[in-house]
């Protein structure tokens, strides 16, 4: 058998919303809605993945008419082929907008009236209807909006789902408080906590790469692996989001969630089945082996201006004495029999020299015998851009001489899979929410354990206010990074560059 279809959810109680459904995007005037949510909904609509007669209703405080709303909806939607343009017109006919407050019943009652009218017009004979509420909102209003929706817009005779964006709290205590309030209103099976990295193609691929390839899976342990580095780099700063960012910092923004999720899938044991609960049980199990991160195993940085590029503190919404880190490298340990002694380094930064998210698994050196001086193996999983998997390995340099050369086995997606269209993470996740598949969403206990790992160091940073190391906009990060890696990983990488490193441009 060459390929095997994997069930989208092993959860027998998952119910797919196949018809008579509305999606309400709360915070429809915002950044996430225009950049990710509406383009993802259009992508699904264009490819025929949305239920027929779907109604899309935007809700936010900003007053705007439908024309203005449609302008925002289309702002980031790309229509490279002619059929997309006509489909976009159809899509916009489904998109309507209601303006209202988040903390009074009045707005939600207006929304209810509007939804009821749209639903009646779209599916007049429907006995049951369904609603998905998508919170593209800052966390400060999650709870009050969840309350307003439950009170005013919750269907008694249909399926209701609520999709919540990260960050889920600021530390263990606030997360528990927020989740506790949400749980009183919305059942766990109605709640979809998005971490959009779980929707990325290469993150979803991890399960198959590992458990579908015994040769890889059997090498994933402390006997063969020296260290693992998970890196997130962005070539732009916090432009326009300085206020939010200063309160949260890089650790809460991408490390406690996106990078930790990647780490847990990379290191978990094989799940019993593909069901959402079996997968998440294994993730929780491995996370429980990770002790809180120590300050001595952290390097914090903050970017400064370079040329015409502003420094972090040049943003008017950032306090001039801010010590909020825009870069961090953190060492995590998994004290399980399989992984003890292997350092896992999470690195993340804004305003760096390139865009890249990758997982780099370094195998141990050949310590003895005839090849003790050659380069070690490295397995690299490039999450973005230019999805690829390559194994750095040694071979004989072709020719009459007998010489080793560092080379690679290379699976670059754009080369291997022609006609490639990798779905956007948000497309995959919104579709999962319609299907009722929780596998790629964050479970409550998973969140709790993630905060236990990060809360002590976050509190220490807040209390002690250590000055982050400065690095220039567009650089590789603080100058101290290389020494930090060498100290904690015990190895400096050989000067070897993957020749197809700009696969993103293929
Ligand atoms: N932007 C991104 O790329 C990503 C964002 N996220 C998450 O998605 C959520 C939304 O993010 P984003 O769209 O960037 O946020 P925005 O700051 O753009 O906020 C979304 C909308 O919420 C309303 N709003 C903003 N601030 C407040 C406030 N203090 N009180 C009440 N309402 C407010 C505004 O609408 P109005 O005033 O019209 O009501 C705004 O248009 C966040 O939880 C974020 O962490 C996750 C991944 C990526
Ligand atoms: O959640 C977030 O993610 C984005 C990065 O997402 P990506 O899909 O472009 O890798 C990050 O820019 C943002 O700060 C953070 O809130």
CATH class of the largest domain equals Alpha Beta
* Ligands (ions, cofactors included): NADPH dihydro-nicotinamide-adenine-dinucleotide phosphate, the ligand O=C1O[C@H](COP(=O)(O)O)[C@@H](O)[C@H](O)[C@H]1O
Number of helices: 14
CATH superfamily of the largest domain: Dihydrodipicolinate Reductase, domain 2
SSE string, helix = H, strand = E?
Answer: EHEHHEHEHEHEHHEHHEEEEEEEHHHEH
Strand % is 15-25%
How does the major sheet shape up?
9 strands, mixed
Strand element count: 15
Counted up, domains total: 2
Query: Strand order within the widest sheet?
Result: 14-13-12-11-7-10-9-8-15
The averaged pLDDT comes out at 92
Structural class: alpha/beta
Poorly predicted parts: none
The CATH topology annotation of the largest domain reads as Dihydrodipicolinate Reductase, domain 2
- Shape designation: globular
**What CATH architecture label of the largest domain applies?**
2-Layer Sandwich
Q: What is the helix content?
A: 25-40%
